[in-house]
Structures are given as C-alpha cells and as structure tokens.
Amino acid sequence: MILAFSSQVQTLLTAGFACEKTKIGGLIMKIKLTVLTFLFGLFFITGIADATPSTQIWIPSSDIQPFKKIHFGLDTYIKTKSRNGTTEPTVTNAGLTVGVLPFEKLQMEAGIDYRDIGGDHTYPLYFNAKFGIPENAIFKGSPAMAAGGYDFGTKNDVADYNIVYGLIAKTLGKFGRFSAGYYMGNDDLLVDINGEEDNNGILLSWDRTISEISDKIWAAIDYQEGKNGYGALSFGVAWKFAPNVGVIFGYDIYSESTYKPTATIQVDIDF
Length: 271
Known about the structure:
- The protein is mainly beta.
- The protein has one domain (7-270): Porin.
- The protein is 11% helix and 42% strand.
- It is built from two helices and twelve strands; from the N terminus they run H-H-E-E-E-E-E-E-E-E-E-E-E-E.
- It has helices spanning 7-14, 26-46; strands at residues 70-79, 91-99, 107-117, 125-133, 144-152, 163-171, 177-184, 200-209, 217-224, 232-242, 245-254, 262-270.
- A hairpin with a 7-residue loop joins strand 3 and strand 4 (125-133).
- The radius of gyration is 18 Å and the shape is globular.
C-alpha cells in the first residue's frame, strides 16, 4: 500500500514556515472524539487495522478490504537525493487494515498505523476509515465510488492532517482502471513552503494487471495535487509472489522541488 505521510510537512513546521495556528472549536473536537471512539469500537469487534487506506502507490484507491480480512502493510520511503548536503530521514509505516462491513455492495475498512520518521516517534499514531461501493454495484457498468479520510493524528495542529477525499473509478477493459477524485485537509498543517494555505487538490490514477506477462504483476501511476508535502507524481510495479503476499517497488516525485524524490518499497500480507 501507499501512504501519504507527513515528513515534508513536519520539515516545514520545524523550519519555521508553518502558518499561524488557530484553536479547533468544540464541535470539531466532538466530531474527532466520535470518530476515534467509533474506530476503537471497530478494532475491538473486528481486530486492529491500519491508518493508511488501501491505496495505489501514493494516493488512496477505491479498493476496500473485504469483511474481516486483515491486511498487514509495511511501507518504507527512502530519499534518493540530499537536500543542501543533508539526507532527509527515511519514513516507515507499519500497520494492519481490516474490512468491517459484511455487505457485498456497501463496504468499509478502518485502521490505525504506527509511523516512524528517522527514529522520531512523536505522536506516531494515525487513524483512517473508508467506505464505498464496487464497480457494477448500482447497475451494470456503474463505476466504483469511495469516500474516506486518513492521517487523523492525535495532536492538535501537530499531527492532525485530517485529510478527507472522494473517488470515482472505472475499469475500461484492457486499458486498465482510471480513477479521479478530490481531497482536502487541515489548513493549519497543509501549507506550501512559504507557509501559505494549500490544503486541497485533485487525485488521479491509472492501474492495471500486466496479464500479458503474468497475472501476478501489476503497475500503477498516480498523482496528488498540491505543494504541501503530499503533492506528488508516483509510479511503480507490484509482484504478488505468493497468494497472500506481494511487494510494490515505486518512486515518488514531489510537486515542491525542494522535497527530494523517494524510492518506496511496500510489503503487503493478507491474513
């Protein structure tokens, strides 16, 4: 799985580029507490889950884990270039994802993830949830649709990126699957290098099983708009070398040129 993570944004904040922070109102806090309570309830009912949703290389996908399926993911992002002579830290996410609805045409997954940024374990827990419907669920030929949120952290205006999104996806035969959507997040944290608000943008992706070579090989390209640390063009290939085990090899090029590219290795295991 691919995750959107916060190392670039945290670099901005520590460098003094963050915009002026505001207090979160009581209503927003109540909503966050309700979401966290709901997620914890799901964990106790169905098991622990992961904070990065089912994804392409970088952005969320319309895929949702089936009911009670537990999916372990270990994603590593390694900088391939130095910045001003200094190599930025490697980012690692580890966690599980679980499907929580027993329906065929209405599905949901939820999760919690542990994130390490170069050995920094400050506020490492992030939550996510996603629900949607698969292709052909409404009528024959209807697209898949999904909505969700990720990177809901535990520290106000430090780790609560609170990204919410919507996606529509459609498979066009041998041309593969095309997805399009939109996202927005916490405008106190999603800022550009000058500290200006940059908290929304489009999501685009293409993916396809390369069946001409092997049904075990998959390729994808995705794009997230923005110069806020999340904006990137990513591409990669996956190899499923066992029925329940696969690995993705990808590369991420960030929209803000001061953020150096990352090579990513993502291991996925289903239980």
